[in-house]
Amino acid sequence: MIDPFNRRIDYLRVSITDRCNFRCVYCMPEEGFPATPKEENLTFEEIARLVRIAVTLGVTKIRLTGGEPLLRKELPDLIKEIDSFPGVQDISCTTNGFLLEELACRLARAGLLRVNVSLDTLRADRFTDIARRGSLEKVMAGIEAAFDAGLEPVKINCVLMKGVNDDELADFARLTLDRELHVRFIELMPMRWNLDEGPAYTPACVTGKVQLKQSAGGMLSDAQMRRLFLSMDDARRMIERELGEMEEAFVPTNGPARTYRVPGARGSVGFISQITNDFCSRCNRLRLTHDGFLRPCLMSDGELDLRTPLRAGASDSDLAALYEHVVDHKPERHYLAEGQRVVGRGMSQIGG
Ligand code: SAM
Predict the structure, then answer these.
(1) Considering Cα of 135, then 228, then 275, then 15, what sign does the dihedral take?
(2) What is the DSSP letter of 265?
(3) Which of 114, 115, 130, 157 to mutate to test the pocket of ligand 1 (most atoms within 8 A of CB)?
(4) How many CA atoms lie within 13 A of 55 on its CB side?
(5) In what order do the strands lie in the sheet with 154-159?
(6) Which residues of the chain, if any, have pLDDT below 50?
(7) Whose CA is nearest to atom 25 of ligand 1?
(8) What is the reported pLDDT for 202?
(9) Which of 213, 320, 346, 351 is a plausible cystine mate for 65, CB 3.0–4.6 Å?
(10) Which pLDDT score is estimated for 14?
């Protein structure tokens, strides 16, 4: 599939649930989003069918995400099924890592090739403030289990937040020194919460550093998110101040991340800078939501309902035509820097 801007679309990110066992302050309110009625979620058979059709259209890379994908018990079966489709070259998963220690081996046996684990701090107290659930210890054990199961390259995704975790960036980069671990820093993206609906999570300013209050509900508001924004360039400078100038590096599975290496390190440090340096011109992705909507762009609200036609008996070629229609309408770029707002769904409801 080639879109009107000559981009080849070969990557499908599939959200298999909007439920999550964490409540990261930038992603979900403490009380969670209202649960999607069960019948609106795609079954695994429906997901597998839609993935198979995408693969016949030239998709070769599949990433399973959510919500928290490891919460769906049938995940290994889905992976096995997807792995059996001729043409699939890469099956990966984005997870918060909490259940990875138990599941890594089963997932690898089913055909999962690699994982990205989301982790925004290496300090247990901050972990509780940011994720509001789970534990740092379990996530670290999950990362080790991923290595043991051969789910490599293992990547850590860390959302940059000024005043919250910017004093830890060099510590994250140090993790790459002795092993092939790839840390990627992600610029904080304004999403659904910028409507400022519901109670805002209240960060307190303590001697210039932001401390997230454990007891507060809600989630970060738009204004708070903007104050916490830290650009890739600033983050890179902070790391280089402590660890020396990094050289450019190449990690084949690192997609749009700008990738560097601390001198002498075995792993790498990447930056995903969709705000200050968007990579829209190289975007090769579509996203399928847990409830069966196909989105051509994470940052634009446009999406097409595949679930209704799927359940009304559409043939594979009817559904393939809908994929092609979405590709034909893939926006050239997002306009977040110009003030565009993404209000339809939050990240956990799209599949980050
Ligand atoms: N539960 C899984 C996890 O934690 O990786 C997958 C879903 S989560 C929505 C996917 C990724 O989106 C995580 O790395 C998370 O940090 C990131 N994310 C969520 N909201 C974000 C935001 N506003 N800006 C940047 N990244 C965000």
Answers:
(1) positive
(2) -
(3) 157
(4) 22
(5) 247-248, 258-261, 268-272, 181-186, 154-159, 114-118, 90-95, 61-65, 11-15, 285-288, 293-295, 304-305
(6) 193-196, 207, 215
(7) 188
(8) 60
(9) 351
(10) 98
